[in-house]
Amino acid sequence: MNLPGQADTHTPLFPKPATVAQPTAAGIVVLKRDREVVVDSDGALPTIAVCHALGIPLREIILAAEIGGVPCYSVQPPPPEMELPPPLQTTVLRAFLNRQSSAWRKVIIRALELATWRNEHRFCGCCGALMQLAPADGSLRCTRCGFESFPILSPAIIVRITRGDHEILLGRNRTFTPPFFSNFAGFVESGETYEDAIRRELQEEVGVEVTNIRYFGSQNWPFPHTLLAAFTAEYASGEVRPDGEEIAEAAWFDVRSPLPPIPQPGSISRAMIDDFLVHSKQQTARIDRQTPS
Ligand SMILES: [Zn+2]
């Protein structure tokens, strides 16, 4: 069995969500509490058997994914006032996700996002009647008017801005705890393309224009259901002016010198910064080779 944190040897399967009457005892349960996730004393996600043995109420169990033959269940969390019986405890979700392999990260995020979607769509937004899971297509369907809701993803962008071969513009978000510097991110507004969102966010947050926008990759971000599209861009013009609301501080950093605290490995933001560090080193090595000694 491939456990979270181990190398990926299996590709996750994402079946349509369906209510599970009798979950497999060895199946894994993803339980979120605020911005934390429930784990056992080893820091691993608990199984159905462990939850049952400890009397954890598992509400609205649906099959979120299967990986290496192990089912992973999405469950509504226990009531907030319920104290977790030892050895169960909570751990910070963001750091927990950064420790997972890519495949397990996807599985866990899917389970979390399905639980959030179900919880936020108990009643129809059109007529107020109860919504019910429709296993055929994985939607929630209104029991009165037939309105359908599918699992929700909110598109957002994150962009790395560089100037030349060694400088990167990083910002410190007012809400980051502990404080650290990162690339710039924001949600895509209705009617916008990714490129529009990048240009608007950068104008609003730091007052700069960029050019040469290139796709880098994407990552799911379950706070609560964001699909983050990552791009690189080159600085074009403008004086860096943090907006003081979202961005408390922003500055150019020369990556040949030590950087301030930056996102942990595992995040796409960190991957983009690391990618630029490699680029900078390669450019330095290339110039060193060309310089006659
Ligand atoms: Zn309805």
What's this entry about, in short?
The protein is α+β, with helices and mostly antiparallel strands.
Care to count the β-strands?
15
Please identify, by name, the CATH architecture of the largest domain.
Alpha-Beta Complex
The pLDDT mean sits at 91
Using the alpha-carbon principal axes, give the shape.
globular
Task: Walk me through the structure.
There is one protein chain. Strands 10, 11, 12, 13, 14 and 15 form a 6-stranded mixed sheet that branches. A 3-stranded mixed sheet has the order 1-5-4, covered by helices on one side. Strands 2-3-6 form a 3-stranded antiparallel sheet. The protein folds into 2 domains: 28-120, no CATH class; 154-290, Nucleoside Triphosphate Pyrophosphohydrolase. It has 5 helices and 15 strands. The chain has 293 residues and is an alpha+beta fold. β2 (32-33) and β3 form a beta hairpin. The chain is globular. It binds zinc ion. Zinc ion binds next to loops. Residues 124, 126-127, 129, 142, 144-145, 147 line the site of zinc ion (ZN).
